[in-house]
Amino acid sequence: MASKVAEELESKLSLEGSESGSLAPSSTSGGGGGKKKDKKEKKDKPAAAAAAAAAPQPQRGVKAAAMTQPDPEDPLAHKYGDPPMVQSTERTGREWTRVEDLSPEMEGKTVLVRARIHTTRGKGKSAFLVLRQRTATVQAVLFADDTTVSRGMVKYACGIPKESIVDVEGVVALPQAPVESCSQKDVELAVTGIRAITRAGPLPFEVVDAARSEAEVAAAAARGESLATVSQDIRLDNRVVDLRTPANQAIFRVQSAVSQLSRNKWMNPKEAIEYGMIDKVLTTPTPKMPGSGRNAVNFRRAEAPGAQDIGV
Questions:
Q1: Backbone angles phi, psi at 108, to 5 degrees
Q2: d(CA 163, CA 211)
Q3: How far apart are CA 125 and CA 223, in angstroms?
Q4: pLDDT tens profile 218-272
Q5: Of 306, 310, 280, whose CA–CA distance to 295 is shortest?
Q6: Where is the OB domain positioned along the sequence (predicted)?
Q7: Which helix (H) or strand (E) is 66 found in, with range?
Q8: DSSP string over the chain
């Protein structure tokens, strides 16, 4: 009996030894192969990154270009899409309505408006646009019903960049509640057609951010919110965009009104003779001094009189 037990123990020990011996080399070889593989992957990473950088990148504007034209199978394809270049080959006879002239009395009337896209907000089958024309703004809405507005039209409208100039055809409607974010708060446009006349490029900043006043930013900070602002340096570097804000529009409107008042009310149109200096005095927004007799200069071998010498 004891001999049988001893034989069984010896056989078990021999089996365990053979199994451990057979497993040890494989684990060692497997571990070494894994380390070599990791080293190779690390060595290949820089080469893969360089190859990816050298590969041709997709050009900007390809996605936007695909959205400039409607779906040919859309039954409302003739209602949206970028028009061809205007070459003044014909007169369309179309009449545009100014945004500031839109009023509740025009409810149900179909109008054509040319304006810039101020903001865009799309959700599912609907889209909300704010159209801006100078200082006047109005809300334009699109709801896909496959009768007057299709899903393709909604997608096209949402893909137009902000500050682009668009022609919008729509029906004047009364909103359920006043649109407080627009100057024409008592009306909105139910869009039936939209075309991007001039698409805007990438903007250095949003006009909405530049239009915020310090009071609005302070009120948002008091509520624990953070609003984007635009520094003065960025504004001056991109003056063309900065001049589109309502505050700057108002400043230049006041300046223009003062100049017109000066010409129409203070000067006798029958007797006044405007010289170049008058125009500069009225329109140059900097400190200036009219010239005097000491400003005489030689012009074509003759002495030219100063501003005071000619009665200015």
A1: 85, -5
A2: 14
A3: 33
A4: 898 899 988 888 999 999 999 999 999 988 999 999 988 888 887 777 666 555 5
A5: 306
A6: 111-195
A7: helix 62-66
A8: -HHHHHHHHHHHHHHHHHHHHHHHHHHHHHHHHHHHHHHHHHHHHHHHHHHHHHSPPPPTTHHHHHTSS--TT-TTGGGBSPPPPP-S-S--------GGG--GGGTT-EEEEEEEEEEEEEETTEEEEEEEETTEEEEEEEE--SSS--HHHHHHHHTSPTT-EEEEEEEEE--SS--TTSSSTT-EEEEEEEEEEE-----SS-HHHHT--HHHHHHHHHTT-------HHHHHHTHHHHTTSHHHHHHHHHHHHHHHHHHHHSS-TTT----HHHHHHHH--S------GGG-EEETTEEEP-TGGGT-
> Alpha-carbon distance 55 to 47, whole Å?
12
- Does pTM surpass 0.70? no
Between 14-18, 183-187, 198-202, the lowest mean confidence (pLDDT) is in 14-18
CA 119, distance to chain mean position in Å, is 8
What DSSP designation does 83 have?
Answer: P
Mean pLDDT in residue range 129-149 = 94
Residues in the chain: 312
Inter-residue contact 209 to 231 (CB < 8 Å): no
The listed range with the strongest mean pLDDT (104-118, 252-266, 277-291, 294-308) is 104-118
Q: How far is CA 138 from the centre of its chain?
A: 17
Q: What is the pLDDT of residues 54-89, one digit of tens each?
A: 555 544 444 444 468 888 889 999 999 999 887 778
For domain 77-84+95-198, the CATH class is: mainly beta
The whole-number average pLDDT for the span 277-302 is 58
Closest to 189 measured CA to CA, from 175, 176, 172, 174: 172
State which H helix or E strand residue 113 sits in. Answer: strand 110-123
